[in-house]
Amino acid sequence: MVAGNSEPGTRDAIFLGITAGVTILYQFSFFVVAYGFRFDKVTDFAGTTNFVVLAILTFLLRGSYYFRQVILTTFVIVWGLRLGGFLLLRILNWGEDKRFDDKRNDFCKFLLFWVFQAVWVWTVSLPVTIVNASGRNPDFESRDVVGWVLFGLGLVIEAIADQNKLAFKNNPQNKGKWCDAGLWSWSRHPNYFGEILLWWGIFVSATPVLGKGRWAVVVGPVLLTCLLLFVSGIPLLESSADKRFMMKSEYRQYKKVTSVLIPLPPALYGKLPLWFKQIVLFEFPFYTSNVSGSEEQLQGE
């Protein structure tokens, strides 16, 4: 048990310092392996399992074992082991990760990626870290149940989406095609929707414990959401898919009738006005590449 009788602010600072140190050490260890042996296939595994390490560590260090702490720690373990195992097996099966084609031989670029991954892990873990550090055990509220439901839905959606895409990619008949099977027929990025949903669920179920100053942990799910919507998630994948498939009218129709994030029936989404899609459903203009000059070629399809 660490700092069991300390003031809440001091205890939080101790746990934040410990998790920061462990995260840096954990990520640096995997960076050495990835760069030294040119084996970047462990990158995603290192990220997801780091969440598991922090959740278990903070749970054991505090030693209070309140039911809310047990639930949230278990949530992170289940999510991290499932996703980490899935991503590791997938990359071992598919080969090299193209995200690192311009980084794996550049020490500074590659190191910067791992530093950013450490920041991501530590920040997104904040709600669970603070719950496990807390000595408070308030009565259960409706917020707990809402958070659990959001997490459960997000986990199921993410797992189903991953399996849908894996099965699609493993079918030789789908070589060179974009995935539009299962949940991917209702959302272009259903796995990201599940990811966002489950982490907001963890935050919501953590809120009964949060007191003065602790609400700052909302930066965790906010950072995750912003990364997926604006930085390393959807923008990169949309750009990559557009470069490969935008010349195909079937793909452009798929984008037109398929929600970018929130799963919706194509028959409904396709009829919604563009302004509604952009403002309410995250269909931002920068998700579509400039394809001017391609129409002449399309006329001959």
Automatic annotation (TrEMBL):
Transmembrane spans: 13-35, 42-61, 67-89, 110-133, 145-161, 216-237
Q: Which UniProt keywords apply?
A: Membrane, Transmembrane, Transmembrane helix
- Name the Pfam families on file: DUF1295
InterPro entries this protein is in? UstE-like (IPR010721)
Residues folding into a coiled coil are none
Gene3D superfamilies, per database record: 1.20.120.1630
Q: What is this protein called?
A: Steroid 5-alpha reductase C-terminal domain-containing protein
Q: Which organism is it from?
A: Riccia fluitans
